[in-house]
Amino acid sequence: MHRERVVRLLLAGALVMTAPGCASDDGADPSQQTGPTGGWRTAGCEFSRMPYFTAVGARRLPATPPRLAAAMERIDRGGRERFADSFAGLEVDQAGVRAIVYRVPSEPFDAFIRNTAEDNCIVVRDAAHAVAELTEWHDRVVADLPYWSAQGIRITTVGSRHDGVGLQIGTTDLEKTRAALHSRYGEEAPLVLVEEGPVRPLRSGP
């Protein structure tokens, strides 16, 4: 299941990165930046790489190099299975031929990333919440969906953000839903509300 999720991420193309810049972007020697707080890069980021493309019919599309894709899969699997209290998620920057890993600062997980990266460029950035914490919140909110429906609160989507910012909840009424959820879960709950309509199934046929 993890492999399928990562493959879908890799095929989606380069993601727009909106996270703030980290300490690794200041030109310092990445091999000397070991964490556990702040951002750092693996030694593979010292080397420039040409973007990788694949042919789909007559089209030439950006793609993730196989070695980088394999490293991302190893980090994703290891992060979820062994370091769930630190790992938050990851994304691919195909133009930069690198991956970005978000994690709650952890020396053991940083060491795992460094040992797993091989010669790939992996940028590590701080996250506020790890996948284990956000999974608990996800399960709690999903279990409460019948309650919210009975309260007239329309929740359309629930999903953990890969950058660890929080649990993203889509709703048709931001203010009403925000007030209701904060009342039930507390102001400090890691919830990110976005205005989002109901998911519509794809129609088949003409």
Automatic annotation (TrEMBL):
- Extract the signal peptide range: 1-23
Assigned keywords, A-Z: Signal
Region (Disordered): which ranges?
22-41
Q: Is Signal tagged as a keyword?
A: yes
Q: Which domain of life is it from?
A: Bacteria
What is the protein name stated in its UniProt record? Answer: Uncharacterized protein
